[in-house]
What does this fold into?
Amino acid sequence: MSILGSCDIKNRKMRVIGSASGFTLMEMMVTIAIIAVISVVAVPSFIGRLPARRLESAAGEVSTAIQIARLSAVKENAQATLLLDVNAESYSVTVNGRTVKRGNLPAGVDLQAVNLSGQATPAAGGLVVFDSRGFPTPPVDVFLQNTSGTTFTIQINLTGSSRLIRG
It folds into this structure.
């Protein structure tokens, strides 16, 4: 082998080492800059939507509690009670003296009022009783509101089914 041949082998090795995959510093800086710009735009938008998401979640939880009360009454052929506590911002479902479901509303969501058959809300909230057929006594409207003033109404009709209404 000649000297020239050994230089050729060294050049090939250098080319292989020099072409190793990876990111350059410039590529990394551009990527970080793009992520920073997207974060600056997206985070305030996300934070602004949190109160609405909390309200939707709370409305879903209360609606689920209503359905659990109704179904538990039918399943156990007994009365089920749904207590909506305005002061404690909480709800609970009780069947045959045992609590089946209990929950608190998330921070920033208020249980504004419970309208029992068109009557004003009692100071402590409302008690809805589902009979063994799943019918409520009385029909109820539950009003939830978040810190932004957005409201959700949950209507429980005479048959015991509930409906969510935004606004």
About this structure: The CA atoms of residues 29 and 35 lie 10 Å apart. Residues 25-75 form the longest helix (51 residues). The mean pLDDT is 82. Helices lie at 3-18, 25-75.
